[in-house]
Write a structure and sequence with these properties.
The chain is an alpha+beta fold. The chain contains four helices and four strands. It has one domain. Helix 2 packs antiparallel against helix 3. It is globular and about 35 Å long.
Length: 108
């Protein structure tokens, strides 16, 4: 299992998001810790737009269990935002995580 899948398993019933930064390590940001992240995002170019979309994703996912917003922040200012969950459709989840790792490998 990948780091993201392991993390999803560990935090599946908690409200929050999965954050992946330049270190390519996935970490969980709980709902109560989102405000400082949003403030930092808004200071970056296009960050206000990403922060708004992240808020919408968090509200949509709130209380729905294992599906979590995933935000990838790269040092070059690029972002990727999506949803990944622990669904019975294993193939779909693996494809989504593979896509996420391909996004991380894109050149700046």
């Amino acid at each position: 299992m990948s780091d993201i899948e392991d993390l999803l398993q560990d935090v599946q019933w908690l409200d929050g998001l999965i954050l992946v930064t330049d270190s390519e390590r996935a970490s969980f940001v709980s709902f109560s810790q989102v405000d400082p992240l949003l403030r930092r995002l808004r200071q970056r170019p296009r960050g206000a737009e990403v922060a708004e979309k992240l808020c919408m994703s968090l509200l949509e996912a709130h209380g729905k269990g294992a599906a979590k917003p995933v935000l990838v922040c790269q040092g070059n200012g690029r972002f990727w935002l999506g949803m990944i969950g622990l669904s019975p459709m294993q193939r779909h989840r693996h494809n989504a995580i593979d896509h996420l790792y391909r996004c991380l490998e894109l050149p700046a």
